[in-house]
Give the backbone structure.
Amino acid sequence: MLAVSDMGLSLSSLPTMLRIFLFNAMGISPNACFAQEFFIHGFTVMESSVLLIMSLDRFLAIHNPLRYSSILTSERVAKMGLILAIRSILLVLPFPFTLRRLKYCQKNLLSHSYCLHQDTMKLACSNNKVNVIYGFFVALCTMLDLALIFLSYVLILKTVLNIASVAERLKALNTCISHICAVLIFYVPIITLAAMHRFAKHKSPLAIILIADMFLLVPPLMNPIVYCVKTRQIREKVLEKLLNICGR
């Protein structure tokens, strides 16, 4: 599920980014822009939800290892994935429609190399209060995911501290490192970008573009590396493939 959301984020943003950087083609039609921001925000919410489910997975694995396989069956995981996908679609579905109803000025210059809801709505000449309120609501839902992830790690830490052996404590915490890295890689650029958009008075356009590109490009790049390094099964498969290629 994490890989699907990462691929979705990349495929949603890369077409316009590559057009700008390779061909200096900076134009985009309104409908294409609205569609792009729908997919970008949709996969962002999905990735946030996936990270939340992964924190639940880590908590169950540490708190109740004997019942872990019976609780998180493949069927339940598939159902959770479907619920996450529906939640993501429903949350961001109003975005294109609320943007389409706005009237836009002649100056239609975006701050990023792709379309974001908070960036597009600022171009409107008409009242965008509905967009501001609903955009804030979606942001709160994403932050709620982060708060629940933090809560799950509080519970994980509480469980780990009850383990008598220091070696077992470290072993248990070691299983969480990949997920903690994925959470930081995903949330740090998002929070930084949101803070700059809402609070920075004299913000650097270059800094905003750089952080916005990091927000979409770094997680899909780094997550496979993090999980290859920390997950033995994935690491062994990758090394096996590389050795086969080198052997040829």
Observations:
- The chain has one domain: 1-247.
- The CA atoms of residues 8 and 210 lie 20 Å apart.
